[in-house]
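Cross-check.
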Amino acid sequence: MRTDSSAADLHADDDAIVIVGAGQAGARAAEALRAAGHKGRIALVGEEAHLPYERPQLSKEVLLDRASLPASIKERTGWQGIDVDLDLGTHVASCNLDRRAVELADGRRIAFNRLVLATGVAARELPQLDGADIPVRTLRTIEDALSLRELFRPGARIVLIGGGVIGLEVASAAIKSGCAVTVVEAAEGLLSRALPRVVADYLQKRHEDAGVQFRFGVSGRATADGHLILSDGSRIPADCIVVGIGAEPRVVLGRQLGLDCDGGIRVDAWGRSDAPGVYAIGDVAAQWSEHQQRWARVETWANAQNQSIAVARGMVGQGAGYGEAPWFWTDQYDINIQVAGELSGTDLVLRGDVRSGRFAALGLQDGTLCGAVTVNNRKDMAVLRKLATRPVNRADLENPSFDLRKALV
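Predicted model, tokenized:
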């Protein structure tokens, strides 16, 4: 990665920064730049007309509460108060590094000294369902959530394609709304890359107990006469199909700039890309994973929040880069599951009784805690995140009566 100008230049009044993408990552970066003392202009450009908001509520409260909308990170007066220029409901059509300007779809140009790409991801779609005779939806924006909410009526037959976190959260909300729900998952089980089998099986049973039906090892191929036709030829009646099969990084501007966009825009620990003065943050940024020894994007609330703040501080010569272990959570029915660190390739240790509905699965490697999953156990997770990368005693971890805080000493 290339380095930028010296820290002495970073506080200059004429150091204009344009942030493309006004989601959580872009908004938190703008806030952090001002809080860290940046004096130059900050322009925050976003495609959605809404003020910047956080997305986790879209698959939870917004689907369930007909009066609910995600809270804005700041009201418009709040952005004015920290002197951040908002340009919402507009699209950046192109970017020119020689001219140091972005061009909007309406022809306007915004000049910059430095550029932050927070363009996020787009929900992956199924082209084979184009022109379906059944409503087909994805979930990424407020409008997506409101559209789904209108379709979640008692008795409505909802089919979820994809058994990932978002799909299962939507399934939970649909069940609570009185819908009949079927989840279609191409793999042979749920969340095989995110959760240990013991946790995935527990979660599947909870969904089945609530009435969700699962079809594994098949995928959606077409629709006909109000049915989703699966790859094995079977049919599922559906009033609405929700596609939740992951997301694609939005790297069009990155490619225009000639950046390395393999799997996302590749950046270092300070968010710097290969182009001087160009950064990437949030879901679109591909960061190097020491544990996995590969480039990886981290699509979590915590990464959008913390990586963006760390990059912003680095842009004004503060901080030591970003290196936090991944952490996310999901709430489904009365279950809270939290995942921290990496469990792939580790020795799994079970803490607690699965039948109690409160337990944890911990990943050890050479006596070091690499990752953890907790089920309805926020207290343990708060300590386990602090224990990450530390040597630990396996017997202590396996004993649910052992106070994990003692391992921090």
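The first strand starts at residue 17 and ends at 20. The chain has ten helices and 26 strands. Passed to J.P. for a second look.
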